[in-house]
Design brief:
Blueprint: H1 22-27, H2 35-48, H3 50-60, H4 65-74
């Protein structure tokens, strides 16, 4: 899940999922990578997965790319 689902089952949607290699998956765990590394990877995911970016725009109710990236980063667990 790009946007961590926690207890919000609305986020358990195929448009909120991407395949990641084990290294990238581990990097996105809170505290595993630096903020800059995680932000860079989130942006790369959105650039390569437009359906996931569209899902995030809808979920966060904004078209502001920087806000979407920041909120996605804040959702990491």
């Amino acid at each position: 899940h790009v946007i961590s689902i926690g207890s919000n089952h609305e986020l358990d949607d195929e448009n909120n999922m991407v395949k990641l290699c084990p290294t990238c998956h581990r990097l996105l765990k809170r505290g595993s990578g630096t903020r800059d590394e995680q932000i860079k990877l989130i942006k790369k995911i959105f650039e390569n997965e437009p359906k996931t970016l569209e899902f995030a725009k809808h979920f966060f109710d904004t078209d502001d790319y920087d806000v979407i990236v920041q909120k996605t980063f804040e959702s990491l667990n």
